[in-house]
Structures
1.
Amino acid sequence: MSSLSQQPDTPCIGICSTAIGDDVCRGCARTFGEISFWGELSQAEKDHCWACLSIRKVWLAVVRPLHGHLEICPHDGSESARFTLRDGGELRLGQPYLDGERRLLPLRYGENELALEVSLDSWPQQLFAWLATPGGEMTDLY
């Protein structure tokens, strides 16, 4: 890095959880493939990865209190995420968006959908309450 205004060569922050089996690093939010082949990626591929990191960090924060496995699902220049819970359930996470002052994250669990307001400090309680509703019952969340 030649000046303070440029981004670092890599998003790595030295806390790599892919070494313990995660597909998405809890430290930098890159996928195992992005980390493994970073030196071989084109600048456009690296730029795309950098652009995706802030959204991935939101997803990582939301699934952190749950037990399971996060996977990034690319879609024509965009991404979503799939989180497989230990009980086999699947939580789908979409792209966060703004609704006025509210920052919302679209979620889907089975047939249930929720726009989780991640701008509130109470979002974890909202998430757990939603996951425990009829039709979306889960066990062993903690």
2.
Amino acid sequence: MVVNAPDSPVQAQVIFAIEATAANGAYIGELNSNYIIPTLEYFHGGALEEPGGNGSVYCIVTYRAADCIPSLPIATYGPYHTPQNVLEAVEKIQFIGGHAESKACLTEAMTTALACFEELGRSETSSHVLILCCSPPYSAYAGGMAPPGKH
């Protein structure tokens, strides 16, 4: 039984932004059972053992800390149309690096998630991002937020 499940499955675009550093890897089992699976059950409309999808689309955006350079700190997976494919993809993520950093590239991950929503092009459905992290983002000035001369 899914807690607070709607009467009928909810069609949505769901992106899991997952920090793929070693620090978060220590908690992926708890994150999987307490956040990923309940989210998938909610949007699937029931237990994950029920086959097939319901029209929801899932993507995964992983991000790392700056110590992964020269490789890219962001990776995308999907789109997936069934919860089982999402769980299989999460199991294959390598949680490495981040030991030399106390922050991670969350800003870049959110920018990538927004680009994924645009690429999916399903504006008629609701869009959701679930952030699974343990490190704060790097400070980044996005423009327009601080008065001129005050940054």
